[in-house]
Amino acid sequence: MHLEAQADDQTFRDEVQDFLAGHLTPELRQAGQRTMGICSPHEASQAWQKILYAKGWAAPSWPVEYGGTGWTAMQRHIFATESHLADAPLLAPMGLEMVGPAIMGHGSAEQQASYLPRILSAQDSWCQGYSEPGSGSDLASLQCQAIRDGDDYIINGSKIWTTHAQYANRMFCLVRTDTSGKPQQGITFLLLNMDSPGVKVEPIITMAGNHEVNQVFFDAVRVPRQNRVGAENDGWTVAKYLLEFERGGRGWGARLRGALANLHRLAEARGIATGTFARRLAALATDVTAVEFTEQRVIAELAKSGRIGPASSLLKTRAGTVLQAISECSVEAIGNYAAPYQPEASQWGSNVEAIGRDDELAVVGRYLDQRARSIAGGSNEVQRNIMAKLVLGM
Ligand SMILES: Cc1cc2nc3c(=O)[nH]c(=O)nc-3n(C[C@H](O)[C@H](O)[C@H](O)COP(=O)(O)OP(=O)(O)OC[C@H]3O[C@@H](n4cnc5c(N)ncnc54)[C@H](O)[C@@H]3O)c2cc1C
Predict the structure, then answer these.
(1) Choice from 375, 383, 384, 394 to test ligand 1 binding pocket (greatest atom count within 8 A of CB)
(2) Each residue of 126-147: pLDDT tens digit?
(3) Domain 7-91: assigned CATH number
(4) N or C: which end of the chain has fewer CB within 10 A?
(5) Class level of CATH domain 126-242
(6) Is the pTM value of this prediction over 0.85?
(7) Ligand 1: does its nearest atom lie under 6 Å from the Cβ of 136?
(8) Which CATH number applies to 249-391?
(9) What is the percent of the chain where pLDDT is above 70?
(10) Is 65 marked active-site?
(11) Based on C-alpha coordinates, what's the Rg of the chain?
């Protein structure tokens, strides 16, 4: 594992910076700047992915045979960091970083040929149907039922906290196909079309004022058997594999680097990047560096064994905590300008004039949204249980 930048890496960084300067329009940069949740506004995120796809850069971490870039770990890190520093829109991770790798690892050749190109080109948008009312941390207790009927499954039940279900045309989901053995043994992994008859999406508005998550209801929804990934009742294996990518494959270090640079800008603009505040900025910079190193370790493990492994829980927990600390500090940096509630002005594309600086508009929304990082993708407490068991052997 080499973390030092090589001479070639500087050439690569220059190439990335040139590309970003040439392709990120002011509108796309505004979408990046105003991102509060897990990804940027849907239209901006799709538009940016299509630009990256045209360049062959949409999925740097995918194997080359599926359309990846063949970059080194350092090049991927440079690309992600420069993208964050340039305020590029955040791409939706559900296709590229979650179901994509799961289909590569566990899908049939037909599924790989059918779904992967559409994920890469942003033709399809995906959402994740894992959690249910009553089944979050204890995911294996899920109840959403699928019964075999000839060549179809028929699904009845509900999923909750489904990020961007309102935009998705496809969902990957876990369903209960057997209740006789251990809960983990009766789960199946299915891919379904969101326009299937019987699917209903109800919005849930978060305290940040965003419509990011939803509850999805299934009323006798038919899903063809060929949309199953892995064997019937073996969905837990696929689900866990995918979760490692969800927790560990997210370019956390680059995201934190971008958030830290943004915090510096905010503090300098308000003239408070000195004294005690400067010490806090330095402490956060150390935390960010530590996450970057942890991430490189996880990437090295992936290259060696093909698995991200349980260290993804460490990365997700630590990165989420540092991201929250940066968002808290950002609110303090803008002082009284955190107080005005201006949801219209902070929307992407809005021309309502901001109270305060334009780049301060998303600070409070992001702070509120970041509270969810302790829960989303598996709560911190549960991640610590996983680390205790699988990393420390306790
Ligand atoms: C913003 C956001 C987006 C999300 N997007 C999606 C999505 O797209 N798709 C999807 O399927 N899910 C999604 N989720 C759901 C997420 O995965 C769950 O919220 C999470 O797994 C926790 O489950 P829960 O909400 O049921 O909380 P619970 O499991 O009820 O937990 C409540 C509290 O109890 C603690 N706790 C529970 N069990 C233990 C234990 N064994 N030991 C110690 N403490 C414990 C937890 O840490 C937590 O603090 C999202 C959640 C959020 C907040």
Answers:
(1) 375
(2) 999 999 999 999 999 999 999 9
(3) 1.10.540.10
(4) C
(5) mainly beta
(6) yes
(7) yes
(8) 1.20.140.10
(9) 97
(10) no
(11) 21
